[in-house]
Amino acid sequence: MMPFAKAIKAADVPEGGVAETVVGGRTIAIIHRDGTFFALDGSARTWAGRSERERWRATNSFAPGTRADTTSGRAKRTRTRTGCGIRRSSPRAVGLRRLILAEKYSAARRLAQILSEGMAEKVRADGFSQFAFSSADADVIVFPLRGHVVEIDYPDADRDWRAIDPESLIDVEPVRREAPPALHDALRRLAETTDEVVLATDYDREGELIGIEALETLRAARPGLPARRARFSAMAAAEVRRAFDDLTDPNWALAEAAAARQRIDLAWGAVLTRFLTLECGSGRQVLSAGRVQTPTLRLVADRERDRESFVPRPFWNVTLVAGDPPFDAEAIGGPFWDLGGAQAVIALAGLEESAVVADVQRSERREPPPPPFNTTGLLAQASRQGLSSPRAMAAAQDLYVRGEISYPRTDNTVYPGALHLRDLLGRLTTSPYREFAERLLAQPSLEASRGPIQTTDHPPIHPTGPEAKRRPGTRQAVYDLIARRFLATLSPASVVAVTEARLRLGGVEFRAIGNRVLEPGWREILPPEHPVADLPPLRPAVVLPVRELRLTQDETRPPPLHTQGSLLLTMQRLGLGTKSTRHEIVDLLFRRQYVSGRALRATPSGRALVDALALYGPEVTTPTMTGHLEDRMTAIAEGRATLADVVGESRDALRALLVELRSHEGSLARWLRDATFFETDYGPCDACGEGRFVRRRAPNGWTFLGCSAFPKCRRRMRFGEAGQRIPWGSEAATAADAIPATA
Which residues are catalytic? Predict the structure, then answer.
């Protein structure tokens, strides 16, 4: 769609003829067909040389052909559709040119589809795809950004690691770099023909900053360009239309909070990483540290250390198997911490051959439904199902863009009163969860469970419509988690009848416990992983045959290693990171090779780094400092602090930490160099005798040993399943194809 400012008189272009004009330095061809004028990119000569069929197709399509209004001087499309918060009106009332900014291509496509009622057409202009349509009051372009379109970095003069003292970086103001520049050029050209901008990026700190970044580029080309904000928590059609009917102003404070995080994280990461790598590292290994990354790494290392220092303690249990059908009962007083005591119980109980029911107690236990999902809760549950945090988050984001779930980045665990729960349940009546949804809709009232965190930005994660048909995979698994949790939060409590029986055998009392479900409630949707069986009918004084009397030995177990899920929950509890960044921090630890495994363990380099920093710079390894900065960034978003104030506080804290680290630079360097040497050095090369074997990682993730004298020596070895060195031979052909011949 190419609006133009210069009017073309009907007499200038005869029916079927072609003329041209220049708008903003661009040549526009004007075609007159059937009494209507169309504006197309290109010269009159170009279009005059086209076949009638090509011209007919161009002028009948929305891209690039647009109808020329020779009265107002603006290009218009002949069809009009309801959209962008404006009701249908006369097609000739069109006058506004609106630019909608979406965060990515898939989001732009979804927004255009909803707002145009499926009439939007894809346009390729200036090397970027966009979507165009006409509403009742405007010609609209939905332009997809690519996430952050501005990067902040230090000036080129400060990017030389060895030439610049890390301390000098603390007070350096980062510069704004357009990424990619061609996208900003396209935005500047769009600014010339835009009357209003609507930010439709994700409504959180990062999304607001992304929209503001693009808006600043537009306003640099056209100062004072009006801008509005569409706030929505789901890409469902009704939610999007409501947001465009109720546009607000951009939230500059929210964007400043995200900008403060960018500056703070850049400074902490650059200063600490350069200092540790240059002053304390060895060889080419980069030692990375950060204000959130390092405390998180310490959580993993401390849990592993707790396990290593744990001393198991043996204990014994005495179990009675009695009755018909048989059931288990444990000796009261157990577990027994010495073998002699347990053997004495066995001997005393063995004096009789039948057990007597001494007492039976019955009660009911109500188990309330779980709280709604926030981001951390969802990723923690996905981790228990075997899904990594990055995969689960990517699937959730895709489901959100498709309009199947609400916005997946939220801390909230309380449904707001404005959320129409019955409408959401109604949408699930055409899904595999129909039975559960209809049962809940039949209830006279709905009472949702509540979690401990209540915010006002976005509701908890919930389905916004039935799941699209797809093959089993990550997206289906994540949707199932969200849909079942949503239904469970609206379900009544589970009621269980608990039976506790006491048996007496030879002067020893045993206790048996059984459960029977009275009202499944939410447990019908989310069954327990390890249900407890019910006891057979029992009453006092009944004699039961003894089937078995056994002595079992066990030992106390150390605390489990962190999984990605438990680590995310711990980070949330300690205030490390945000809902949008926690899973990224965990992924970063893997990419830095500081942690490994599904049950997280710190690698030798990760362990050495966090142990050394805990001794010589403890502030950077604890949640206290970073938690304070998180609170201060929240204060920016709420208007209680400024970006300059919070960045200044961060610089003071970073400067004090660097001074402390430098006072122990010698000890810190010896500690880290020794640790990283034993991890990366695998002895002399057996081929050349000059270099040493060092561990390398190929782009596809394979780890192998290569000679440090490469390219002079090209000796390579691979690791076996048990970590042993295996010569590079025919049996490694598959791996060799994927690993380049450069070590």
Answer: 407
